[in-house]
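This part of the workshop introduces the protein records we will be handling. A record pairs a protein's sequence with a compact description of its fold. Backbone structure tokens are a discrete shorthand for how the chain folds in space. The question running through the whole workshop is how a given chain folds. The record below serves as our worked example for the rest of this section.
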Amino acid sequence: MDKPIPIRLAAPPIVEAVWELRFESESDSPVDLLPGILFERVGERYNQIQRLPAADLPVQALQLDPNLRHAPTARLASGSYSIQVGRNVLALSCYAPYPGWKAFKSEIRSIAEIVRTTSVVGRAERFSLKYVNILPTEKLPTMSPLDIELRINGHDLTQAPTHVRTELREQDCLVVVQVGSPAQVQYPGERASVDGILIDIDAIWNAQGDSFWETFEDRLESVRDIGRKLFFRVLTAATIESLGPEYS
């Protein structure tokens, strides 16, 4: 029987939420102008701009090396948000404390509209919504808060240092799921780190045809819904209850 899905949590374990857009760009494309265009449009909010190491690499290397093709070359920051931009990628990150889907979606729509209306970005290839979560726990390693079974020759891996990555097909999305224990995170502005269990859900939608922007908002909601439901399916009912669920 499927567990009921909360509409929100009083204590969301989200460390970082990321909306990523990947797009085409030719070697002679003026896509390098994109950080400046973004700064001109949202510079009042994103008033810190940083050149990243990949910016010093030859354009040909960025285009031909699969490991570098989506490497960001510039970063714009604004409090708990940041935008990272490369020749074939733009990523909007939101750091803890998570402001909720309504606020995050509004920021996504704002940045997406700038990208959609600029002439320096080529055809959109895909977008994804990724949520990185940490469930704090004193007893490590353990995966007891998760609805998961892992055994090798009778050995229970949920009570051993274990990290697992898998890919699932959910409707028309590819969802990359990573869980691991022990894991550690340091929140922005905090000196102390938090130990716990990693739950990383990355829901990816690949564009089909030329209707990317026409269906973008509907797709954004559906991709978020797929990732959200899978996240709660990973948790035990007791873990969900400990996070202060609110139901409609």
In short: Residues 8-246 form one domain. The chain has five helices and 13 strands. The chain has a mean pLDDT of 91. The two ends are 19 Å apart (CA to CA).
